[in-house]
Amino acid sequence: MEVQVMQDILGKNDRIAAENQALFADKKIFVLNLMGSPGSGKTTLLERTMAALKDELHMAVIEGDLFTTKDADRIAKYAVPVMQINTSGGCHLDAPMVQEVLSQLVLDRLDLLIVENVGNLVCPAEFNIGEDAKGVVLSITEGDDKPMKYPLVFKESSIVLLNKVDILPYTNFDMAAAREDIHTLHPDVKLVEVSCVQDTGLKDWYDWLRAKVRAKKG
Amino acid sequence: MCKECGCGQTNGNTRLQFNAKGYTEESAKTVEKALLGLPGVLFVHIHAHDGETTIDYSPAKTKLMDILKIFSDHSVEAAL
Fold first, then answer.
1. A11-217, CATH topology level
2. Which of A211, A194, A212, A204 lies closest to A44, judged by CA?
3. How many CB pairs under 8 A join A and B?
């Protein structure tokens, strides 16, 4: 008797995400799915991170963008392996896209893989790619109302980076309200205020990454 | 599903509307905050004066019982 499968319970994306996750577990690589709006400062944060940690950790970056290799070109300047995924208009990365480029990275040598998702506060939070943790960058210029307007990305993220705090005095961004809203949505989330131009908070971010890498290595 | 652009599969988010009794202005804020702290709750709106409470949530991440427990923990009687 033929058994018909009427529904793929996990869905293709979740199945591939599970495969990616198993591979990352086997290789003991900590994988961060970094999300945020266009212009929030994700790539600049990664540039600073690569410069600070490249002699300490074996890192690689996967860049997600609709078009161009502009972000990958910026990361490549730090002599860190980087892959660019162009989604050709797609608003997020998914697990199959990530799986396709993994064969081009030397995973045996990696401690940390950061996947910079397509700039978007909505869709990337809906798709697992096999990561250990999600993180979100929210810049001061986006406004303090964004956590409650885009709650899922803040609920899903293990770390929130409030970026561009150097320009806080010149905006009406209410830091206390933003912090309260983020902690309301996700009481246990790690929240770091950073400025990539003034070096504010970057040590906390690096220490968080170091701790996650150590934990993954066991 | 990502409702803004229609990509992906449905994530099963659902909206519940409760009629609740026992709110004060202060407890309504506390309940709202407690509900938003549940993993699957994405939106809460409470009219403290008439008890109308709207909750958008993912049943895959938060059980209805968890929501009801928040009401009872704050001495609010809520019915769908």
1. Rossmann fold (3.40.50)
2. A194
3. 37
pTM here is 0.90
Give the domain ranges of chain B.
Answer: 14-79
Q: Please name the member of B8, B39, B42 whose beta carbon is closest to the beta carbon of A127.
A: B8
In chain A, the DSSP E strands lie at 30-36, 59-65, 82-86, 112-116, 133-139, 159-163, 190-193
Our measurement of the distance from residue A117's CA atom to the centroid of its chain's CA atoms, rounded to an integer in Å, reads 6
Say what the ipTM of the complex is: 0.79
**Mean per-residue pLDDT pooled into runs of 10, chain A (218 residues):** 56 93 98 98 98 97 95 97 92 95 96 97 94 98 97 97 97 98 97 97 98 96
The order of strands in the sheet holding B41-46 is B41-46, B52-57, B14-21, B77-79
| CATH architecture of the domain with range B14-79 | 2-Layer Sandwich (3.30)
